[in-house]
Every structure is written in structure tokens, then in C-alpha cells.
Amino acid sequence: MTGGADAGAVADRGAVVVCRGVSKVYRQDAVAVQALTDIDLDIPRLDLVCLSGPSGSGKSTLLNLIGGLDRPTRGEITVAGRRVDRMEKGELADLRLRHIGFVFQAYNLIPVLSAIENVEFVMQLQGVPAAERTRKAREILTEVGLEGLEHRRPGELSGGQQQRVAVARAIVSEPALVLADEPTANLDSKTAENLMQLLVHMNAEHGVTFVFSTHDRLVMDFSRRLIKLRDGRIVADERRG
């Protein structure tokens, strides 16, 4: 494994995410842009965390680094006990497949697949037998309120229903962590509130750790911890009950 014998070491075994001295610099037209600077962060298991801040604050960059979708310029990132910053592409893909769920503002459902097929897709990649993945997909779709809509394709579902399919797909394999980038951005206020109530339920009932990146005050209000970023630095970290 890349990184040697200590690649699985974790700074705090009670944390699903640990960041130490994480910085990220982008190059734009030969100009260095400092997106994140010296981020230190621990996210315990079962937490419900919101990363907030204005555009350009670094919240989406931090979410992408935690999810292994990008690499830090400097620093250490541990997710589910494994050093993400030392992993090669294949290792990162396996980590995302087995330990991290994603919920995107654009839903990212496969348009030619039905709701149940979209939920089954990750389990299929994981090698879960067909009968088991169909059973689990049906159960989770019922839990998110989509019973009877299992065979509709994304284009036949409302935005809120599509986002529920995305949530079901993200948590069906019981990942250690779910990352949600602006999960309510394309939803009306009532649908957004229903979605957040669902995510809080999933956190409690399935033991999933959630990290949101958002501008939305509603998402902040539902989160138990609010981490504020400005100019690539954490400027506040508030526990809210």
C-alpha cells in the first residue's frame, strides 16, 4: 500500500475524518491561488457537520479533499482510518466505493436507470449478490418515502424525489461518511426541509456521519456542528447541541 506501514494510522480513533495542516494551492494562469491554509479538523463518528462560508471560502475544496476527489498541496487527511493524501488512484476509488457516500446538488443519477437500479448500482460495483442488493435497495427506498416509485427513471421524478434517490444510493451500503455538497440548492424550501429531516433521521438510525457544504441557512440550522470558513481558513467551529 502507498505510504508504508503507517498509512492506516489515525490521529484519533474516535474520528472518521482527521485533517492536519491541510493546505491547497491552485494554479490559474500561472498565478497561485491559496484555497485552503493549515486546516486542522477532527470529525467524530456520528457527527452532523456543516461547512459554511461565502463563495471562495474553501468549503467545497475541503469537502473534495476529504472525499479524495482532489489532493492537498500539503498536510495529512485520514478518512475511515486511512491516509487519503497518500493513496494512489485505485486506492482512492476503492475508498470512495466502500467507505464514502456522496450527495450532489445536481443529483448525479444515471438517467437511463430506474430509481431502484440507481440505488443498486454502487452495490453492484461492490460485488453484492443481486437478490441482496435488490432487497436492500427496496428497503432504503421505502425508508426515504419512495415506495411505489422504484421503477421510475430520474426524468419521471420531481427534484425532491431525485434527491431522495441520491440519498438512498449514498447510504444503502452503510458508508462511514456521507459528503453532501449544497444538497438543498435545487429544492424549494418545503422540500429542502423534508430532505434535511430525512438526513437527520438517517444519521440517527443508520449511524452515518454527514458533512455538508452549503450557503443555505436551513442546512446550518439542522446541523449539530457549524464550521465557518473564510479565505481558506477555519474562523469558527460551533457545537450546536
CATH topology: Rossmann fold
CATH architecture verdict: 3-Layer(aba) Sandwich
Instruction: Report the CATH superfamily.
Output: P-loop containing nucleotide triphosphate hydrolases
CA(first)-CA(last) distance: 39 Å
Beta-strand residue fraction: 25-35%
Q: Would you tell me the overall average pLDDT?
A: 89
Radius of gyration: 18 Å
> Which strand order does the major sheet show?
6-7-8-3-9-10
Shape estimate: globular
Q: Tally of extended strands?
A: 10
Q: Poorly predicted ranges (pLDDT <50, ≥5 residues)?
A: 1-13
Q: Look at the helices and sheets and give the structural class.
A: alpha/beta
Provide a descriptive summary of the structure in words.
- The chain is of the alpha/beta class and 241 residues long.
- The chain has one domain: P-loop containing nucleotide triphosphate hydrolases (Rossmann fold).
- The strands form two sheets. Strands 6-7-8-3-9-10 form a six-stranded mixed β-sheet, sandwiched between helices.
- The radius of gyration is 18 Å and the shape is globular.
Please outline the helices and strands.
Layout: E1 15-28, E2 31-44, E3 48-52, H1 59-66, E4 74-79, E5 82-83, H2 89-99, E6 100-104, H3 115-126, H4 130-143, H5 159-171, E7 177-181, H6 189-206, E8 209-214, H7 217-222, E9 225-230, E10 233-239
Parallel strand pairs: 3-8, 3-9, 6-7, 7-8
Antiparallel strand pairs: 1-2, 1-4, 4-5, 9-10
Helix pairs in contact: 3-4, 3-5, 5-6
